[in-house]
Amino acid sequence: MNWKGHLLASGAVAAAFMGATAHAQTRSQSNVIEELVVTAEKREQSLQDVPVAISAFTSEKRDLLGVNTITDLTNFTPGLEYNAQNDRNTLRGVGRNTNVHAAEGSVAQYSDGIYTSSTTEAGKTPLFVDRIEVLRGPQGTLYGRNSIGGAINIISKRPTEDWYAEARAQYQNYNMSVLEGAVSGPTLIPGVQFRFGANWTKQTEGWFKNTVPGMPDEGNIIDTKYVEGQLKFKFNDHLDGWMKLAWQDWHNDGGGPGSRNSWTPFQFPTYEAVTAGLVPTAGYACRTGTGVTNIQVPAGMTLAQACHNGALDGAHKFTSDVPYQVKLTGTMIFASEFTYHFDKFDVKYVGGGTHYHYFLTGPTPVDQAPILSYTLPRVLPPGAIPGTTTTTVIPGAGPTVRPRYAFNYQEQENWYSHELNIASTDDGPLQWIGGLYYYDEDYNQPVYTTLVDAQGLGLNLSNAVCTNTGGLCPALPGNNRIYDDRPHLEITSKAVFGQIDWKFAPQFKTTLGLRYTEDHKFGQESLRLLCYDVQACGVSPELLGQNFYIDLTQRGAGVVSYGTAGSLPPGVSSTTTVDPANGFATRHYDNKWSSTTGTAGIQWDPEPGTMAYARYSRGYKAGGFRIGIDTTIGASPNTNPEHADAFEIGLKKDFGRTFQANIAAFYYKYKNAQIPITIAETSGGVAQANSIFYNIPEAVSQGIELESIWQPIDHLQILFNYSYLDAHVTKALGVVDKADPTALAPGAKPITPLAACTTNPVGAPSSCDVFTGYTQRGQDLSGNNLPNAPKNKLAVNVNYTVEMNAGSLIGSLNYVWRDKQYGSIFNRSYYQSPSYDQWDARLSWKDRDNRYTVIAFVKNIFNDVGYEGGADANRRAGFIQGYTLGQTGATGGARVPVVEGVASTYPITPPRTYGIELQYRFF
């Protein structure tokens, strides 16, 4: 905590205690803590009566605290972390570490009872969301699908019986504006109410400033629209229903999930024009002494400026000549709920689904130097020029490289869910609920990378591939795609569940729940991977798995099949076939997983306002496949399911009418955590450009959490949250760090002695790392923290209300501190994001009749750099001399391996933002 934190924290605490002393005798009903009703266990209950660790946020509480985004939500939710760029969340160290839809997240999101694979629904404004409930710990009975880490339950505001209408407008710096409104009330049809709402959010100035002249800034430059309509029915005294249909559209330039929110404070890498035989890197033109000539940079920049990463000058600066764009089109969200009330139980159906098409384009790599083109030298072997006995390098005589490189990522998804449950409604000692659940999803997740300038592909690629294969190679794509992966998968999940709560004594209640789930995933993946101007291109333009190549000389006779049906790896259901007409390699996937999960617990209510509980929960997440996005049809795509055995004890207590504390202590035994691992590039050949899933054999998550509310005097409220989390690996051996494959960095724990390389032919897979001269070494990861699991989190809010004849004035001050955290299972300095703190303030005026509210706010008052999660890191390694150019007929040219170092990338929070919001209620 820095000096600003000490100063303001001391002032707030001193003011609170002085107020408590001076006004200890003035307490009245106005400062009694309000009861909060939740539906965490699929029936309405007071939060203080539910034996589960829950953080709940009503729309009023969100307005008070300034919880406008999911990142804000994490500040006041113990154990919860969220990365806005990747739309990934983590709860108590258990979460989502990849965007591969064939391996979902570990924290289930339910919007009005409908499972969704994205957390963005929780980011809707308080005008649309009545309540957000974060259930911490495995919810393996009632929220069984992928709820091994917990569940986020989002409940919409519903239609009202009386007329209601409200409009809200907000403006803040960076030219951001929000316009939204809602109207609700009865219809002309008896027993039917409606609600209609719309939101338009637009920001035109980015948080990140681009140093390339003429290129756009980025960071939350958004243009999003959301419209929803609802109907609520009361058919008769027994049957009622509700339906919602929503439409969403994003047309964002450098903003929204997937776009830039990270910072890499290092210079551009300066390595060869190809990395692993794939990427024509601009960084090569920045290195002197390579014979590169005719270097072209964007107008208004010098070569020195282009080769210098602008992010060095500040966390919110970057350099890029390929802009990010985010689009979400054709999105429709449907949810429904119908309930038939019998005398002592309800039968309820909850069903709905989502259709959407998400687009993301951006630079590859994200810190690529803005070089438009350069000319390589021509490298001739000894004797190519009569009389020469050494390699001859002729500057300016080789091909011209246009290295701008970009990616396109898409998600085309449809998912539907149906749940039928029967729940008791009487007041007897035995309460029960049971049900059936079915989920269906189908998606396409195409991703490709392109040379933005057409000449870069047409000039170099065709000759590089075809001259070594006698011309028997597939036609080049006309769309400049170097890498083109097209996965399609279908997912089904079926479950049956039941839970009983039995109050067997006046002060004791026991809970028992079980759920059986079966998951099935099947589909296919088609991939075309083309090389760029290296020797390996002649033998491996498509990669079908580590240690496996396609021999292009077999082309021309028809479809080629590889692999043996009887010896396929787990999850792979077909041999790999290659179509010579288009060069796509295709294989199929199919696997099933099932598990029995549930809960058992006991609850003790010794007196009103006091509840203690002990609970065991079993969590499960289905296995999956590492396909699509950044993979190259790896040899072992299958990943095993996750399981967790969780033990928790808790106390929820009201100390009088003015202080409330909820405490939870937990211990998880966590098995087979699904972690994506990138195979380190060690030999320079395309075979190492691959990613796999790794199941951590054993891990532990344990800690303690406190949420408290204190209202010492009238109109003063203090919220204090603290959590300690120790989530670490207990067993994992042999994993290789992509940023340090030979385990030479300080703190590395290799399991084998350091050994020098013997042989390592370029372009062939090998355990030898030619960049250091040593063999790869796996490490012992026991004791390492799980990703995105800071040990300590603290949040404080102090708010005070001044009552006046005309209305009320509320001042609200937030302080948040978050410990350091790692973005990898390797706890090295280059994966670590530092600890940070942040101050926010709000001042709200509400008139006496509650017709209008005016809110002035500032977030990140001191404009500090904060971190949404741990860092990612990559080794910058390549070759600096010579080329072997198939199109020139040359076969010589020395290639000297070098390591430029390790570059860390940090997901950072927004800079200082401030603005004003007006809310007006018509009825």
From TrEMBL:
<keyword id="KW-0408">Iron</keyword>
<keyword id="KW-0406">Ion transport</keyword>
<keyword id="KW-0998">Cell outer membrane</keyword>
<feature type="domain" description="TonB-dependent receptor-like beta-barrel">
    <location>
        <begin position="401"/>
        <end position="861"/>
    </location>
</feature>
<dbReference type="InterPro" id="IPR036942">
    <property type="entry name" value="Beta-barrel_TonB_sf"/>
</dbReference>
<dbReference type="Pfam" id="PF07715">
    <property type="entry name" value="Plug"/>
</dbReference>
<keyword id="KW-0410">Iron transport</keyword>
<comment type="similarity">
    <text>Belongs to the TonB-dependent receptor family.</text>
</comment>
<dbReference type="InterPro" id="IPR039426">
    <property type="entry name" value="TonB-dep_rcpt-like"/>
</dbReference>
<feature type="domain" description="TonB-dependent receptor plug">
    <location>
        <begin position="47"/>
        <end position="151"/>
    </location>
</feature>
<keyword id="KW-0812">Transmembrane</keyword>
<dbReference type="InterPro" id="IPR012910">
    <property type="entry name" value="Plug_dom"/>
</dbReference>
<dbReference type="GO" id="GO:0006826">
    <property type="term" value="P:iron ion transport"/>
</dbReference>
<protein>
    <recommendedName>
        <fullName>TonB-dependent receptor</fullName>
    </recommendedName>
</protein>
<keyword id="KW-0813">Transport</keyword>
<dbReference type="InterPro" id="IPR000531">
    <property type="entry name" value="Beta-barrel_TonB"/>
</dbReference>
<keyword id="KW-1134">Transmembrane beta strand</keyword>
<feature type="signal peptide">
    <location>
        <begin position="1"/>
        <end position="24"/>
    </location>
</feature>
<keyword id="KW-0798">TonB box</keyword>
<dbReference type="Pfam" id="PF00593">
    <property type="entry name" value="TonB_dep_Rec_b-barrel"/>
</dbReference>
<dbReference type="GO" id="GO:0009279">
    <property type="term" value="C:cell outer membrane"/>
</dbReference>
<keyword id="KW-0732">Signal</keyword>
<keyword id="KW-0472">Membrane</keyword>
